[in-house]
Design goal:
By secondary structure, this protein is mainly β. The protein folds into 4 domains: 116-233, Immunoglobulins (Immunoglobulin-like), CATH 2.60.40.10; 236-353, Immunoglobulins (Immunoglobulin-like); 361-498, Immunoglobulin-like; 502-641, Mu homology domain, subdomain B (Immunoglobulin-like), CATH 2.60.40.1170. 11% of the residues lie in helices and 45% in strands. Residues 1-15, 46-59 and 105-111 have low confidence and may be disordered.
């Protein structure tokens, strides 16, 4: 057993070779860790104390220098960025302070600033309104600011077609009113009145704005508040009547009935027509004002009706459909041939067929679907016919049938045709006219006859609105492409309406004052009486007129309830009779009016019969025939019309 020597201070035991080999062969730290990591044997428990060798950490000098260099670069970058971050932070603080100051200033100054958002312009009115009637709108201007508005003005721009309520003939385009000052938190209201015109369903826009100034400011600001509404009813209804089908070249009539729905008078009322290119205008009742398509109808009174009848024809080579358009409104003040405001437009379509044989009927030289007979005749009737085919027509027969009770069966004269009183027909064939045996393409001719009306046709006790019909037929044969014969037929019908008869009576009587017979330089008063009778049809708008000479003085009317006027400028006396029912004065009392005049004869009139009232006549509108009727004309009344028992009214000294 060997005993080891105790090491003294400062003495080191020399390293033995076997220990060096042990250290050289000992696994490294990494190998130990790898062995412990993959070993299935749990690692031994570590003591709480570390060996001095394990506690020593050796860092390579290169690693330390690299770390110092990286740290120095980072510190340099941070050193460069930090001043900018500080500046940005300081700027943010300053901006926040400025914004807060602005907000505080706004709160402090808010009561001294006028904001347009605090000004309201509202227009109150219905969403829809009828055309031609007065429309009331209420405009409210509210100032919700804490400052007063000075010099506020209301401006209104009206839509096209707007009229003045006080005078419907005047257009209403713009309106401006000075509202003055509007106090803070105050409201000003104004009422607008207008009469809109336009087509049904049309949108209208009233532009409303307010211009104002703020206190202690010269700047002008504005605020808008428009108003939109719809025209829900037209002021006039239009009814168009026309045949649905007609033959090419056939004369036909279009009736346009216009009725006022407005509550006010429509002034300068007019109708404008738009025809297809093939339409040929012949005539109209009443006659056009300009050309053949413009009618000025004057003032249209509420609930009254106007009718225009247009006669014409459409020539078409083939079967076509054509449309006629009619517009009603007011006359354009700049161009009398145009409509300034259109109320309503209506259309009517007709189918035009190419006839095999065209037929035209003329009564006393007049064409049309309706003929108005004045008196009892006789009436000459002409039937014009033409072959429109490209092939000949053979065995053509033309028949005219009179239908009604107001014509005289014994008054019909058939000309070269055969009149059969049993069937009231006049017929023509190849037996009566050789031309009808064969008619080449485009060839035509005329057949004529005459008839008259019964004397009692206008007797209201027998016939009210007397009328009759005249039917024309044409039949023949044509050869088709395969040589077979086919029948061709054409027809035409005309209605004959009898116009009413106005009868006027005029008489003169002594007025009870002055000498009779009249004497020079002494005044004598006379009484004039007019009596009016009407026959079979109702008449509207009847009036009687006469002229009084300048040397005759108007005294006055004697008939209460009758409208009679005298115009000293021109000396015209007018009796506005109005409506006259059928039968007035026939079996009943006539309409009568009386008025007085006086004459102060001059010495130059001695030995003469001075005229006191000139020729007089009555006119009116026949409601059945829609034509103007005129009475018999009464001769002038002189001083000789009053029997004086001596000189028949001759002026003496």
């Amino acid at each position: 057993m060997s005993q080891e020597k105790e090491k003294g201070p400062g003495l080191e035991e020399p390293e033995r070779p076997d220990r060096a080999r042990e250290q050289f062969s000992r696994p490294s730290k990494l190998e130990d860790l790898e062995h412990q990591l993959y070993s299935r044997t749990p690692p031994p428990a570590h003591s709480q104390s570390w060996s001095a060798e394990e506690q020593r950490i050796r860092i390579a000098p290169g690693w330390t220098e690299e770390a110092e260099r990286q740290e120095s670069a980072f510190i340099g970058i941070v050193g460069k960025i930090m001043p900018w971050i500080k500046r940005l932070f300081i700027a943010s603080i300053l901006f926040a302070l400025f914004a807060g100051s602005v907000v505080l200033y706004g709160f402090w100054r808010g009561g001294n600033v006028v904001s347009p958002q605090n000004i309201s312009v509202s227009v109150l009115g219905p969403v829809a309104a009828p055309a031609g009637e007065e429309l009331l709108l209420e405009v409210n201007v509210a100032n919700y600011n804490d400052l007063e508005l000075t010099s506020a003005d209301l401006l209104v721009e009206y839509p096209d077609g707007t009229r003045e309520p006080s005078d419907i003939s005047k257009p209403l385009l713009r309106y401006r009113e000075a509202l003055g000052a509007i106090p803070a938190r105050g409201t000003v209201s104004r009422r607008l009145s207008l009469i809109p015109f336009g087509q049904e369903g049309e949108h209208k826009l009233v532009k409303v704005s307010v211009e104002y100034r703020a206190k202690d400011s010269n700047a002008i600001f504005s605020r808008k508040g428009d108003y939109d509404f719809i025209i829900n009813a037209a002021p006039v209804t239009v009814t168009i009547s026309a045949p649905k089908e007609l033959n090419s070249g056939q004369t036909f009539e279009v009736a346009i009935d216009m009725t006022s729905n407005a509550n006010t008078v429509i002034k300068n009322f007019a109708l404008k027509a738009d025809y297809p290119s093939e339409f040929q205008f012949e005539k109209s009742t009443p006659a056009p004002t300009f050309g053949s398509d413009t009618w000025h109808l004057g003032d249209l009174v509420p609930q009254t009706k106007r009718t225009i009848r247009i006669t014409g024809r459409v020539n078409a080579a083939e079967e076509v459909e054509r449309t006629l358009r009619f517009s009603v409104g007011t006359v354009d003040p700049k161009d009398k041939k145009l409509l300034g405001t259109v109320f309503l437009s209506g259309t009517e379509s007709v189918t035009v067929k190419r006839p095999f044989v065209s037929l035209d009927l003329l009564i006393n030289g007049e064409k049309g679907k309706t003929f108005v007979a004045r008196g009892t005749g006789p009436f000459r009737t002409d039937i014009a016919w033409t072959n429109n085919l490209t092939t000949p027509i053979t065995d053509l027969e033309i028949t005219a049938k009179l239908e009604g009770q107001i014509f005289g069966r014994d008054s019909v004269q058939g000309g070269n045709g055969f009149y059969d009183s049993n069937t009231s027909t006049v017929s023509w064939s190849r037996r009566t006219d050789s031309r009808l045996s064969s008619i080449d393409p485009g060839e035509g001719g005329t057949q004529s006859f005459t008839f008259g009306l019964l004397p009692v046709a206008t007797n209201p006790s027998l016939y009210k609105n007397p009328s009759m019909q005249l039917h024309i037929f044409a039949r023949g044969k044509r050869q088709d492409e395969i040589g077979a014969y086919q029948e061709v037929v054409s027809s035409f019908t005309t209605e004959i309406r009898v116009s009413s008869t106005l009868s006027l009576g005029a008489s003169l009587a002594y007025g009870g004052t002055g000498p009779l017979p009249p004497k020079a330089e002494e005044e004598t008063v006379y009484t004039v009486s007019w009596l009016l009778a009407n026959s079979s049809n109702s008449v509207s708008g009847a009036r009687v007129t006469a002229i009084v000479p300048s040397y005759v003085k108007w005294v006055g009317s004697l008939s209460a309830g009758e409208r009679i006027t005298y115009n000293p400028l021109g000396g015209e006396v007018v009796w506005e009779v109005g409506d006259v029912p059928s039968g007035v004065g026939i079996g009943t009392s006539p309409r009568e009016v009386s008025f007085q005049i006086s004459i102060l004869p001059s010495l130059s009139q001695v030995g003469s019969l001075p005229v006191l009232v000139g020729d007089s006549a009555a006119t009116g509108q026949d409601r059945f025939t829609d034509t103007t009727v005129e009475s018999n004309r009464r001769a002038a009344l002189t001083t000789g019309a009053v029997p004086d028992g001596k000189l028949k009214g001759i002026v003496v000294r």
